[in-house]
Design brief:
- With about 90 residues, the protein is mainly α.
- The chain has one domain.
- Helix content is about 70%, strand content about 0%.
- The chain is built from three helices and no strands.
- Helix 1 packs antiparallel against helix 2 and helix 2 runs antiparallel to helix 3.
- It is flat.
Length: about 90
């Protein structure tokens, strides 16, 4: 019985997070990609082919985000000397 309850809880949490993630892709203030990927991880365990593909997709997104962050840091350093004042 507890196994069935855990599976049901996992699937309902996964579906909820996917729904919130889909809304978060449109509405500002909600991290859409984070909640969407968390929901997909709950829905598809590691031992399935789809689960492995989702994990690879998330890993690629993490690498892209890290490369983008590094590129932005190089383009615009955050030192006080180089900031322009608004007032």
């Amino acid at each position: 019985m507890t196994d069935t309850f855990k599976k049901l809880l996992r699937k309902s949490a996964g579906v909820s997070l996917v729904g919130i993630g889909a809304i978060g892709m449109i509405v500002p203030g909600i991290q859409g990609i984070v909640t969407l990927s968390a929901g997909l991880l709950l829905l598809y365990p590691e031992d399935t082919e789809k689960g492995r593909r989702i994990r690879e997709w998330i890993h690629r997104k993490e690498e892209e985000a890290a490369a983008d962050l590094e590129r932005r840091r190089k383009e615009r350093p955050l030192s006080r000397k180089k900031r322009s004042r608004w007032f």
